[in-house]
Amino acid sequence: MLAFDSSDTPPTTEPAIKKPSHGSESYLALVWRRLRRSWTGMIGLVLVGLLILMAVFADFFAPMDPKATDVGFAPPQVMSFHDKDGNFVFQPRVYALSDSEELDPVTFQPIVGMDYDNPRLLGFFVKGAEYKLFGVIPADRHFFGSTDGQPVHFLGTDKFGRDVLSRAIIGSRISLMIALTVVFIVTLIGTTVGMVSGYFGGTFDIWLQRFVELVLAFPQLPLYLALTSLIPVTAPTNVFLAFVIVVMSALGWAQMSREVRGKTLALARIDYVRAAMAVGATDRRIIIQHIFPNVMSHVIVAVTLAIPSVVLLESFLGFLGFAVKPPLISWGLMLQDTATYSVIGSYPWILSPVGFVLVTVFAFNALGDGLRDAVDPY
Q1: DSSP letter at 26?
Q2: Taking a C-beta distance cutoff of 8 angstroms, is the pair 250, 228 a contact?
Q3: Distances from the Cα of 304 to the Cαs of 27, 107, 179, 360, 370, in angstroms?
Q4: Pick from 105, 173, 197, 264: most CB atoms within 10 A?
Q5: How crowded is residue 123: how many other Cβ atoms within 10 Å of its Cβ?
Q6: pTM recorded for the entire structure
Q7: What is the DSSP letter of 163?
Q8: Where is this region: Disordered (predicted)?
Q9: What span, in angstroms and rounded, lies between the C-alpha atoms of 186 and 197?
Q10: Which domains are delineated in the chain?
């Protein structure tokens, strides 16, 4: 007879199921986790954050007063870590240009050289031109510049001797403000019209879409030029700026409304929307509680992709002289100095604002591509 060994019996209790250490992730947490996997999206997010930070604290990051004049069309000053004897030094410096008494045998112009006897030492958080932070707080500290307050032109000067880098940094405030304001208005109007048109449908949708098609049929560029030329030159700068924003917004909402309408037409036929209608939910509640959250993912991506278009449009109109007027500063207005080929060939550094426009367009496009993959992984 075999003896029964209790150690051979299988355990009667089932192993405990390990629970995850963290709770269920929200939709925003899932979007953020997917966005972090996109290196292009993260680069775009960092660049967009830096651009917004630069625009908010533009006076602090600008090394000089954007309205101060020095010498017309001075080339960029290169930062150096060597003294006049060629020895390495830890504190960076720049050398101003000086005209020598010798003349060029071909052009008979004074030969320009470096003034090694008077270096301008560079540093962080230096004193410079006075300004008001946020238009209220008086300050004179700048992020980077010369320690003795002497003019430093890292990107050269324009024809009036104004520092190009400082003007480009200050100009980011106007350019980004116009872009963000226009996109906000376009998104608000386009999303509202698109959801209402797609949800109610019928005759209301037909007539509303005919009006949208009429707006889309207008040739936008000639209409921009015609509308902005209606403002007299003597009008205040704030009025002119507001009119430009209104014109861009009035012609830009139609495309957004068509995209949102297409999403709404598909969502209006989903079971949970029909169930809400069956239980007697109001149209306002269905649009706000059920349709709007589901179109937000598309709207967010559309916003990040629309901002570069507005920046390019403002730069183009500013180059033609139909956007921002002096004394305001924008990237498009700065590019007016590049209207002639001879100026570009002789002073190529005045094309520097193009670099700011390219970085802005790349940053928002990269962020938009990353968000598009994050909010819709399929």
Answers
A1: P
A2: no
A3: 19, 51, 11, 11, 10
A4: 264
A5: 15
A6: 0.81
A7: B
A8: 1-21
A9: 16
A10: 59-162 (no CATH), 167-375 (1.10.3720.10)
